[in-house]
Amino acid sequence: MSRVAKNPIVLPQGVDVTLSAELISVKGPLGAMKCAANPAVIVEKVDGTLVCKMVEGVANADALSGTIRAVVANMVTGVSKGFERKLNLVGVGYRAQAQGDTLNLTLGFSHPVVHKMPAGVKCETPTQTEILIKGVDKQQVGQVAAEIRAYRKPEPYKGKGVRYSDEVIVLKETKKK
């Protein structure tokens, strides 16, 4: 059995899980999420924890049990604590400003870049060069952060661009005469 699937998922206070044959739904203080259940994996509620078990004799059940456990654990974390990604803008004149559900970016182009946030994802700008993306869905938060970073990736000579806060850019040496 998958090593990941062997770990039980501890349910924090205020998180409610509903299990059925087709659907796993999780409700918490920050929102609600649903995912499709797989017939190769059995998810059980035991004493305030969730346990994922594989069905014997089904192909790929071992791998799927670890995947389903990770997805459900991310759902529980999302509705209880939430997820966030922090982006930094590096470059002269690079600015960001959050207005409602849109993010206005000035990234050195001849035009401003306007990024509309999808439902369930919120954006904050504590300073002009910091972007904080928050939401309950880990995949969606990461996808929005990747889309914003893709507007102006960090270049390798000066390091200018949009980067994750924990990202390390290895700068190249410039050409010598």
Keywords:
3 helices, three-stranded antiparallel sheet, alpha+beta, Outer Surface Protein A, domain 3
Rg, please? Answer: 21 Å
Q: Overall 3D geometry?
A: elongated
Q: Roughly what percent helix?
A: 10-25%
How many distinct beta strands? 13
Corresponding CATH superfamily of the largest domain: Ribosomal protein L6
Largest sheet: 4 strands, antiparallel
| End-to-end Cα distance | 60 Å
SS-based class: alpha+beta
- Number of separate helices: 3
How is the largest sheet built, in terms of strand order?
11-12-7-13
- Name the poorly predicted regions: none
Total tally of structural domains: 2
- Reported by name, the CATH topology of the largest domain is Outer Surface Protein A, domain 3
The chain-level mean pLDDT equals 93
Can you name the CATH architecture of the largest domain? Alpha-Beta Complex
Order of SSEs, N→C?
HEEEEEEHEEEEEEHE
The level 1 CATH classification of the largest domain is Alpha Beta
**Strand fraction:** 35-45%
